[in-house]
Design goal:
elongated, about 50 residues, 2 helices, mainly alpha
Length: about 50
Amino acid sequence: MPEEVKLSDELKKMEYEPLLPIEKKLVGWSIGLGIALLGLLIWVSYTFFPAQ
């Protein structure tokens, strides 16, 4: 039975890999879309379901 490999040891062996330009763009679009949709949800809730 092989030795148990620890996650921390494997992570230390990995080399640093910078994000590709397309990955950066996807992250930016995802964050932007999430913020925009949260804003839309807040607007809808205040407009159609006002607090009493």
